[in-house]
Amino acid sequence: MKHVKHHITRRAATALLCAVTTVILTGCGPDGTGADAKSTASATGAKHAFDTMTLEQIDHQAREALGNTTSMRFIGKADSDGRQMEVDLAMDVHGSCNGTVDTSPGAMRIIKKGSLVHVKAGEDFWRATFSRGMTAEQAEEMVDLFTGRWIKPPRGMSEILGRMCGGFDALLEGLDPLSDGSATREADATVGGRPVAVLTERTTTETTTVYIAKEGEPHLLRATATGGDVSMDLTFTDHDKPVDTTPPPPDQVLDPTTLR
Q1: Which residue(s) pair with 77 in the sheet?
Q2: Would you state the pLDDT for residue 39?
């Protein structure tokens, strides 16, 4: 098999993961994600265009499709230095998003459109947030006030939390060749019932596998990584589907800037 420097690999996946976890984990943060990744063979025996392509050509088509995608939903789990995270976020190229991130301080829901951010989280998340710079009594007062309510954070906090919605930029910036590992094409499989081509890149310590759709646009449907600093399993759905950025009803939103 011809050697190829694979582009949609660990660097891109890790960049995406960093964008999602930068607010919650210190540093950058595989289990199944519900994706069906069974090996499969063509029921009809018919050949697909990928079957006559080199790895570079398949990779090029996948990168081109990703570059033309306007939105996606990212679902999966990751482990960074023993810290687990689950993510379910729909994002678009404009930095809007809607979804949840769940990690050690607790789960947080976020809706972002432009610079407008709304978040909702449980007491564990807010307790971890307010335990820095406040007395225990002050922190608990804030936890009671914020828990279970939609919050419109002040500008500085909105900018920090909003970085979780930069997954597209992170993914696209990470598509450069990254290693001298050899890439191979594995047996075809299915992800969410859709047939995919499976490309794997291995180094001495890391293995990254991507699953490229064989029907319709050659979208990236799944990416897994093991070894190294981060293990992860992410699936990608809802390509080009508009992200629902409808804000919560005003009577359900707390604006902390109005508090004393």
Answers
A1: 86, 233
A2: 47
Residue 136, class by beta-carbon neighbours within 10 Å (0-12 exposed, 13-18 middle, 19+ buried)? exposed
Q: Tell me: the pLDDT tens digits for 216-233?
A: 999 999 988 888 777 889
Task: Retrieve residue 76's tokens.
Answer: 């999966």
pLDDT at residue 32 tops 50: no
| Cβ–Cβ under 8 Å, residues 184 and 6 | no
Which residues are within 8 A (CB) of 131 and not within 5 positions of it... i.e. 6 or more apart? 139
**Rounded Cα–Cα distance for residues 155 and 100 (Å):** 20
Identify the band that residue 18 occupies on the pLDDT scale cut at 50, 70 and 90: low
Going by their DSSP bridges, the two strands 253-254 and 230-237 should be labelled as: unpaired
Question: What is the C-alpha separation between 3 and 6, in angstroms, rounded?
Answer: 9
Give φ, ψ of 185 to 5 degrees.
-100, 125
CATH class of 1-43+54-90+177-240: mainly beta
Distance CA 27, CA 80 (A): 9
Q: What is the pTM of this model?
A: 0.80
Which of 147-151, 170-174, 186-190, 219-223 has the least mean pLDDT?
170-174
Domain ranges of the chain: 1-43+54-90+177-240, 96-165
Alpha-helix runs per DSSP H in 154-194: 155-162, 167-173
Q: Give the Cα separation of 192 and 34 in Å (integer).
A: 8
